[in-house]
Specification:
442 residues, alpha/beta, nine-stranded mixed beta sheet, four-stranded antiparallel beta sheet
Amino acid sequence: MTNARRTAALALAKQEQNGYSNLVLAAALEREALSPRDKAFVSALFYGVTERLLPLDWALGQCLAKPLAKLDAPVRAVLRCGLYEAKYMNTPVPAAVSEAVSLCRQLKKASAAGLVNAVLRRAVALDVSAARFKDRAEELSVRYSVGRPIVELLLEQYPDRAEGMLASFFEKPPVTLRCNTLRCTPARLCEALAREGINARPLDVPGAVEAEFSGSPAATEAFRQGLYHVQGLASQAAALCLEAQPGETVLDLCAAPGGKTLLLAQQMGDKGRLLSFDAAENRLPLIEAAAARCGLSCVTVAKGDASVYDPALAGADRVLCDVPCSGLGIIAKKPDIRYKSLEGGEKLRALQLKILANAARYVKEGGRLVYSTCTVDKRENGEVVRAFLAGHGEFVPEQPPVVLPGALLEDKMQTMLPGFAGPDGFFTAVLRRRGVRAGTPV
């Protein structure tokens, strides 16, 4: 494991330069010739330190004469790795300390070996749950390793549920699949996965399946055959709320990486026009490849800015805008989000409102518009929708056709809080343009 520990420590040092954790780790693993076992160890250590950074740093800080930030980045990484191993990976304390000291020397930081040895032996005995903090926000921030700005926001908006949400961010979310209903049923998908040694079961949300993978969910024969794609349950519920129908014209305005597009195409029976857009051109091939793998012919993928009007798209039956957001509902899946500063929030919310207003221009009379996010910040959710409705009397909110157990409903808008309505936080608002649809007033 010597090279594995070194790889993890160097990746963590690199991560401090504000790189995306998944990209930093992928690049580190690609550079090193490691066994599958060692790669798994590197991933566990790297993500473990990232997820538990604040309690680790709190314990280390109690045992240092000077601030942790004053140490060299490699030494910080070694300390964090050693402490995480000892506290969370069942590595015996003497072994974890010995490996950390050895790693210091490998990284040409031998002068810090004595400090690492002394600090780790003291820090491993500290218990953050027994510590005293200046206020509730600081306590929750350190204990659950989430930045203070996010903790303060959750305490303000969800005072009775904040700690439950924070605790859920440490839970590993189950892998949820969306069955390709054009090729099989959830029951048949579970049978196909069972033949490959994978436990799976259908969920209550139509077409959703939960599975237990020992490796990548994309490494199965069932995946190669296009029998499913990976998509969170809350994300599936949001897309299902569009209720896309065969023969319709449907727009997915912020589509990458494509999970909702695939679901919508299946809802449509692969009949009609499904136009899938994203502003990031480099992500479009992901959608195209997924649609081809699933055998979908109604999907057209193109680069498009959801905030800029394109008259050629007017008259759509249904429009989905799953807008860029702060991502505060999916922290368990994306540990980078734990430490976001939330700066630039006003600009983000202005963009969200602009996208929603622009999307509305594409919807025909009687058509449906769905606005969704993967955040729990009320300012990005209900407040954006209410601001839109205040200036667009031609739209009215409707009850979401798919509501997850435990979800909050307010003014017909659905908020799914992580830990209370599944593992992911999500928001969905279903809006209808007044008018006549298919000859019937709606």
